[in-house]
């Protein structure tokens, strides 16, 4: 049986897209990634149970569709306590939250992986709004254990901050 070449090209493109973060890491072009024990689509990771606990702010697939964002970082513009601002190098935008010691950069997880140094531009490259199935945003005091990290601050290096968790299909 001969497999149509269009199917082969589609499968190769999907595989390449799925491996893009890992390939970028190998070239040094991406933020540092650390594997978390949580993985998989939002529906398989306890997203709904955490949403019912009301400990953070959540965007479901339906919420995301209503916002009609062109890039994923735009989805955070409507979440209280989260802002996009120029990073200290003034070249990139980063997500910033209010923390215990002032403004801080939250821990960012994409599909259960912790990404150190994730900029808004990196997030927009790795996750399109159409592929995002859920977003969780936690203030420092309500971060679930599996998403707790220390974060950088303008005044101190390792301070408690919130976490942003993004799930894709």
Your description of this structure?
The structure is a single chain. With 169 residues, the protein is of the alpha+beta class. The chain has 2 domains: 1-30; 31-168, TonB-dependent receptor, plug domain (Ferric Hydroxamate Uptake Protein, Chain A, domain 1). Helices cover 26% and strands 28% of the residues. The strands form 3 sheets. The protein has a 6-stranded mixed beta sheet. A 3-stranded antiparallel beta sheet has the order 3-4-5, with no helix packed on it.
- 3D shape: globular
Determine the structural class based on helices, strands and strand pairing: alpha+beta
CATH C-level of the largest domain: Mainly Beta
The overall strand count is: 11
The N- and C-terminal alpha carbons lie at a distance of 31 Å
Summarize the structure.
The protein is an alpha+beta fold and about 170 residues long.
Entry keywords:
169 residues; alpha+beta; Ferric Hydroxamate Uptake Protein, Chain A, domain 1; 2 domains; six-stranded mixed beta sheet; three-stranded antiparallel beta sheet; 4 helices; 11 strands
Q: What is the secondary structure topology, with strand pairs?
A:
Layout: H1 5-27, E1 32-35, H2 47-53, E2 57-60, H3 61-67, E3 82-86, E4 93-99, E5 102-104, E6 107-110, E7 113-116, H4 120-126, E8 132-138, E9 150-151, E10 159-160, E11 163-168
Parallel strand pairs: 6-11
Antiparallel strand pairs: 1-7, 2-8, 3-4, 4-5, 6-7, 8-11, 9-10
């Amino acid at each position: 049986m001969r497999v149509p070449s269009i199917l082969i090209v589609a499968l190769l493109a999907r595989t390449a897209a799925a491996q893009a973060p890992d390939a970028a890491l190998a070239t040094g072009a991406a933020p540092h990634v650390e594997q978390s024990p949580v993985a998989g689509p939002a529906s398989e990771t306890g997203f709904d149970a955490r949403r019912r606990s009301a400990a953070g702010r959540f965007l479901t697939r339906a919420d995301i569709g209503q916002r009609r964002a062109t890039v994923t970082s735009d989805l955070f513009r409507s979440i209280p306590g989260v802002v996009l601002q120029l990073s200290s190098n003034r070249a990139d935008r980063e997500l910033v939250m209010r923390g215990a010691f002032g403004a801080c950069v939250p821990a960012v997880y994409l599909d259960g992986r912790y990404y150190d140094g994730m900029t808004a531009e990196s997030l927009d490259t790795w996750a399109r709004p159409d592929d995002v199935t859920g977003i969780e945003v936690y203030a420092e005091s309500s971060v679930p254990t599996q998403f707790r990290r220390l974060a950088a601050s303008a005044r101190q290096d390792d301070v408690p901050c919130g976490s942003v968790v993004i799930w894709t299909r």
